[in-house]
Amino acid sequence: MKNDTKTNLKEMIELIQKQELLLPDFQRGFVWDIEMQQRLVASVLTKMPIGSILVLEADTEDFGCRILGRKDEVDTSGGNRNVNVLLDGQQRMTALANVFSNQLFYDYSGSGKLMTDYRRLISVDLQNRFFLRIPSVENLDEKEDWFHLKELQFAMTSPESDVPEFLTGDIREDIVYFSYDEKTQEVYAPHAEKPQNIGNFCLKEDYYYIPLFLLINNRKGDSSNETRLKNILKDIVTRVVRYRIEKEFDILTTESQKQEFVNKYIEDDYKGEIIKAEKVDRSELEESWISMGETHWADKMKQYLTCCISNLDLHQIVVSKSDRNRAIDIYENLNIGGISLSTFELVLAKAAKKKLASNKNLFDLIVDDIQRTKKYDEKIVPDRMKKYYKCFIDTIGMYSASDRLGCFDEKKNQLNKKYTDIFLNVLSLICYVPDYQKNRVELSYIKRDKILSLTSDEICNNYGKACKGIDRACFFLQVRCGIRKIQEINYNLMLVLLGYILSNDSFYENENIINILEAWYWCSIFSGRYDKDQSENIIEDINHVLSIIKNPEDKNWIQDMKKNVFHMQGFSDKETLLMKTSVIPKAVVRKTLCQFYLAETYTDLMTDAEIQVFSDVCDKLEEHHIVPVGTLDSTYKGMEKKRRDDKKNVFNSPLNFIYITKDSNQKISNHQVEYYVKYCNDNSVYDLHIDINGKKEINEPNLAEILEKRFGSVKADVEKRVNMYL
What we know:
Blueprint: H1 9-17, E1 21-24, H2 34-45, E2 52-59, E3 65-66, E4 82-88, H3 90-100, E5 128-135, H4 168-171, E6 175-179, H5 198-202, E7 207-211, H6 224-249, H7 255-265, H8 268-271, E8 275-276, E9 279-280, H9 282-310, E10 315-319, H10 324-332, H11 343-351, H12 362-371, H13 383-396, H14 401-404, E11 408-409, E12 414-415, H15 417-432, H16 448-452, H17 456-481, H18 492-502, H19 505-508, H20 511-526, H21 534-550, H22 556-562, H23 574-577, H24 587-600, E13 602-603, E14 610-611, E15 622-625, H25 634-637, H26 641-644, E16 657-660, H27 662-668, H28 673-679, H29 682-687, H30 700-725
Parallel strand pairs: 1-4, 2-10
Antiparallel strand pairs: 1-3, 2-4, 5-6, 5-7, 8-9, 11-12, 13-14, 15-16
Helix pairs in contact: 6-9, 12-17, 15-17, 15-18, 17-18, 17-24, 18-21, 20-30
C-alpha cells in the first residue's frame, strides 16, 4: 500500500478478500450505531472527506489478526507473510465494507459463496442492508428530485468529476436500511436463495430503493452484482417512462401534439422509427425513451455511485514495516493527534506485546472468563437467599455471575462500559498493591496515567485475578444487594472496592469479611458517602476495609458512617425523602430502596411470585408506586399530568416505590385504595410496610403521614441488617 489522499474501496475490498488487509486482534468490536453509519454513507455519496485510516505494513507473526467485521481469526499456519494491519479506522472501514459490498459475508473456506452463520460477525449491528432511497415517479413533484429522475437526465454531466448540488443533510434521511437475521426470507439478506428477485423489492409505490451493497462484486471475475444493479436502475427508468407516457402522452388527442411531445423529450439520436407516416408509434416511443433514459440516467447514476466509492476522500497513512512494539507505540500515541482511544483499548494493545494463553488476545480472554461457569463459595449466600440459590443451581447447574449481570453483550460482541472501567481500576490496584497492605492504596492508582504505566507483563500476569475478583463481586451484589444487572450498580467505584478485596482468595473465603462488606455497602449508600468525592472516598474505604481485615475490632469508621444512615441532610434524611425541602431526592435512594427489599426477598403484591434475584420474573420487575395515583382523592387525580409528574410532589418520594411484577402492576393499575388493600398479599403488605391506617381516600397530607411511618420502618430494617454484621 502507499500513502494517498484518495482510496479505492474496491481495491481495499480485494485486499480484505485476499486477507492482506487485516485487523490486529487487540482492536475493539464494532461500536458504531446506525446513525453513525448513515452519516458516513451520506458523506461518501456527497463526495465529502471521511477522515483517515492508519495502516501498518507487518508480518502475520507480528500480531494475532482477524478478518474485518468478523470474529474469525486468520490462519497463519501456512507460514509468515506480509500483510497490512489496520491500526486505526476499523469502525469506518467495517461500515464501508458492510454498506457497499458483501465482503463481511464472504466464505473464506474457498467455496466462493456467502456465509449464513451471522454469529461470526463481530456485531449484530452489521446485520443490515443499506439502500439509497429516491422518490418514485408518482411522488417526484412533491419530493426533492436530487438526481433528476423525472427528466431522465442525470443531475451531473460528468459524474466522475462533478460534485453534487445536495449536501449530506439533504440525503441523510434517504440512506435507509433493512435488518435481517438467519431466518429472514427477504431477498436483500445475504443468504437469500433468489437474490435476483431483489428488483421487485426495490420498486415500491412511494420510493425506489437502490441497493448500495451491489456496487462491488462478490469476487474478482464475478459481475453478478453489477448486472443486478444495472437491471434495477433500468427498471426504475422503465417505470418512469411508462408512467409519463400514460400520464402525459396518452392524453394527447392529435398527431401534431404527439409529434411535438416526441420532439420535446426524445433526442434525435434516439428517435429512430418513432414517427412513421406522420404517426407516432407508442411502443417505439417507449422503447427509445427507455434506451435514452438508460444512457443519460441509469448509466450515469451507476457511474456516479461507483465513482463515490472508487475515489473516496479517505486519507491513508501507511507506516512501513516495523516490529510489534513499534506498532503498539504508534497505536498508543494516536491520542497525541487527537484521535480518541479509550484507556481500555490502549491496555489491550499493550497486552498484545505478549503471547497469551491459546494465542488469544486479552479481550477474548476476558470474555472467556465472564462466560465460564463457576462454583461460588456458599458462605457468601445469606440465609434469606439460600433456598432460592439452591433451587436455582439445582435447575441450571453452575453459572457465571458476571455473565448473568450483563457484563458482556454477546450479540454486539461488546464488554459493558462499566465493566471495562471497573476492570482497569481493579487491575491497577492489584498490580500496584499486590499484597493488600492497608494505607498503601492511593488515588493515583485508579487514574489514567498510572493505568497506562502498567507493563505488558503486569497486565498479562494479573488480568485473570482482576476478572476473578469482579466476578465474585458480581455474585456478592447479586445475592446480597439485589443487583440484577451491572447497569443497576449505583456507584461504579463500589464494585472496584469489592472486586479488589474479593480478588484475594483468603478474603473471599472469610465469612466475617463478607459480612463487613455488606454492612459497608448499605451504610455507604444510605449515608450519602458517595454523593460527593467518590474517588477520594473509595480509596479511603479500601484502606479502611484492609485495616479492619488486619484488625477486626477496628470498626470505628463504619460505626461513624452508620450514624448518617437516613440522616444525611439533603440526601437521605427524613425531611428530604418526604419532599419537605427544596431538594429533589436523588434517584439512587429510590433505586437502592427497591434493591434492598429485593435482597430481603418477599412475595409479590398480587401474585404468588417470589420477588428475589433468581426468580423467573426477576428481569421483568417494574418500579411501582406503593400508593398508586388511583388511590388519591379526586382533587389530586384531577390535576394536570404536569403536576402528577412533578418530582417535588410527595407522591414521587423514594419511599413510595417498590419492585412488583408486571401482572401486579396491571392488576393494581389505578384502583381505589379499598381494592388495593383487600387484594394484596397480607405478608407482602406487612414486609414492605404498607400501612394506610384504614384510610379510604388518600390526599397529599395523609400520604405524607403514611410515608413518614414507612420511613421509620425502612430505616429500622436497614439498621437491623447492618447491626447484624457489625
